[in-house]
Amino acid sequence: MKTEIKTEKKKNKVMLRQGVRKEVLGLMLLLPALASILLFKYFPIVLGVFETFFKMNIVKLPGEFIGFDNYIRAFTDKQFLGAFLHNAKAFCYSLCMNFWVPIVLAMLVDEARRGKTIFRLLYFIPACAPSIAMTVLWKFFWQPDYGLANYILSIFGIPGQMWLNSESWVYFCIYFPHLVISGGMNLVIYLAALQDVPGELYEAALVDGVGIFNRIRYITIPCIKHIIILMLTLSIINAFNLMENIMILTGGGPSNSTQTMLLYAYQQGVNSMDYSYAMTMTTIIFIVTMTLTVVFNKVTREKD
Amino acid sequence: MAVIQNIELKSRKGKWLLRFIYLFLVVGAIIQFFPLTWLFLGTFKTNAELISAVPSLLPAKWSIDAYIEAFSKYKIWENLYNTFFVCAFIIIAQTFTSTLAAFSFSKVRPKSGNFIYMMFLGTQMFSTTALLFPTYIMMSKMGMIGSKWSWVLCSSAWAYAIVLYKSFFDSIPKDLIEASEIDGAGTFRQITNIIMPLSKPIYSVCILNTFMAVYNDFLFPLMLLPDEKDWTLMIRIYSMSNTGDIPDNVKYVLLFVTCLPSIIFYLFAQKNIQQGISTAGLKG
After folding, report:
1. Three-class SS of residue A72?
2. What mean pLDDT is predicted for residues A138-163?
């Protein structure tokens, strides 16, 4: 009896020691990643939101407390509100020009009986080039004097356009390159999703005499719907975080017609050194994007 | 799976439809490839040819003067060196932090692990831009603006990679770890001798992902590395796109040199990357 209790106690002790060891070891292993994430991800975010309530003084942080003044300033800033509309416009362009093309192309590639992998590779390789490099290249194409775009128009006898310098063409010029830049990558994603659509469904539909378009509508689209929704969410996020392309192609012009929220924030931060205002705007952009994403996901979920 | 069934293709209408699809795909592929081809051929042209009103696809005379000028006069070597230097150290740092963290999440499973895991996942929601200014302020307080290490430190852990590693380590049977423990292997030996050799595919995917992310990163180096001698390729091509001093054919060379490494890397790991893309796409 006594020995049994003793061994039981010993067992408990060993288990306890093992538990402690596990805990310590686990945390030790997590330490490098945890330190990095806390210091370089969470700390800046908290610092950024904290500073929005101050008039920042970079020599003596955090500066002077001003409450919600930065937010009031942003919501009454006409340029910032205009920039929001530019972002919304950019989203409409990306939806109308870019969003559906990779889906259609992926379906067509999927129809190819031979050379499917070759087609996939052909569409994929150009998309691997860094988007910034490609955007700079397209700037040469849109050049009004000797650019390729105007040359191609002149072959058909159409007068040249100002492209990036004309307010009516500028969004087209920003989003057209993305058919190549991000289109190829999206095509590969859709193509991967299309591989998971069960082939028997199509066979059964054919036996029932369902036409090709109805097959696409009632079988293909519902089967890849989750990817489509995901990509749509990503395109919302991208459109409201649009900046790098604009910086390269137009720098916000012509006459501020492409100044996006983020570009405005960047300019306020870098050119005017108004960091707390810039951070206020990035915080607002973050909240706007999050809200849009959540609302969008809720709406699409409810429909199911 | 194909929408159009094989039986349908035997009819005349189906045959024409398929031919039309092929035609469309070939035209599309040509359009997709056009900018890169134009860029490649442009590097061999003279500057006068590039800015002439009547452009031609093929260069009139193939010359490599632009390459010589770009590499001798405009210090592409320096930019290439900077880019690869930072890429290498970030890859090393991330591989180190994520391997240890993923091993802990997957095999050691401390009680607080779940909470920390959720915390890591949360960082995926932070946008780069929200981090940009605070990081800049923090780094300037630490006096690290202009040092490449500031960028390396900022990117030393990536939650996305940790998640990928963890899900892969989960598929390695726990028995292997327990058996090695009985044989007296320490945690370090377990990671280097059991986990790492078994996880080669995920290592290649994650390293490539990191490489591409760092290689294409634009805003962080732009803010953190203001000195011209520290510029990466991306910053170099951004700054040159705004100046008129550099001849166009040299700009083309710069662009082409920037595109080349990423295309080569993608081709190398084409299959792995596509798997990575599709799983990342599904997980969001």
Report:
1. helix
2. 86
Q: How far is B52 from chain A (nearest CA, A)?
A: 6
Instruction: Tell me the residue type at A94.
Output: S
**Can you list the positions of beta strands (E) in chain B?**
none
Contact between A91 and A237 under an 8 Å Cβ cutoff? The reply is no
Residue B282 pLDDT level (bands cut at 50, 70, 90) = very low
For B229-255, what is each residue's pLDDT tens digit? Answer: 889 999 998 988 888 788 888 899 999
Average pLDDT of the segment spanning A29-35: 93
Answer whether B5 sits within 8 Å of A195, measured CB to CB: no
What ipTM, to 2 d.p.? 0.85
Mutation site, B132, B232, B256, interface A, largest A CB count within 10 A: B132
Neighbours of B111 (CB within 10 A): 11
Residue with tokens 């990466």: B232
Q: In the block, which residue shows the tokens 């327990």?
A: B178
CATH of B75-283, one of 1.10.760.10, 1.10.3720.10, 3.30.565.10, 3.40.250.10: 1.10.3720.10
* Residues A105, B36, B206, A119, CA torsion sign: positive
A148·B55 Cβ contact <8 A: yes
DSSP classification of residue B247 = -
The answer to whether residues B152 and B89 touch, using CB atoms and an 8 Å cutoff, is yes
Q: Residue B195 carries which side chain, given as an amino acid letter?
A: I
Site of tokens 């569409």: A123
pLDDT (tens digit per residue) in B124-174: 888 888 888 999 989 988 888 888 999 999 999 999 899 989 988 988 888
pLDDT tens-digit map of A205-230 = 888 888 888 888 998 998 888 889 88
Ordered by start, the domain boundaries in chain B are 6-68, 75-283
CA distance A225 to chain B (A): 12
Residues of B in contact with A34 (CB under 8 A): 101, 116
Give me A239's structure tokens.
């459109």
Q: Do B101 and A33 touch (CB under 8 A)?
A: yes
